[in-house]
């Protein structure tokens, strides 16, 4: 047990001396900008009505860019709608939206 204490204290002393001689750790900025994790939401849905057919929808919404001050951001969304069956027949619709928000 005494040997363990001596080794432990010696290890602490070596670590303390190495930190004291090296000084504080400097934060180094990476040469390549760090990627920012982006969050987006996806919505899916389907509705069916008797004798009118089925509508299927999908939508994705994401914040594409935000200023460093956080006062301006660009949001984008994409949606897809398709109708199956019924009197209207089959059809589809694509939409892309871009929104700029100033706060």
Automatic annotation (TrEMBL):
Domain of life: Eukaryota
Annotated GO CC locations: extracellular region
Attacin C-terminal domain ranges (all copies): 40-98
Key words, A-Z: Antibiotic, Antimicrobial, Immunity, Innate immunity, Secreted
GO biological process: defense response to bacterium; innate immune response
Pfam families cross-referenced by the UniProt entry: Attacin_C (PF03769)
Family note: Belongs to the attacin/sarcotoxin-2 family.
Name of the protein described by the UniProt record: Attacin C-terminal domain-containing protein
Organism: Aedes aegypti (Yellowfever mosquito)
Taxonomic lineage of the native organism: Eukaryota, Metazoa, Ecdysozoa, Arthropoda, Hexapoda
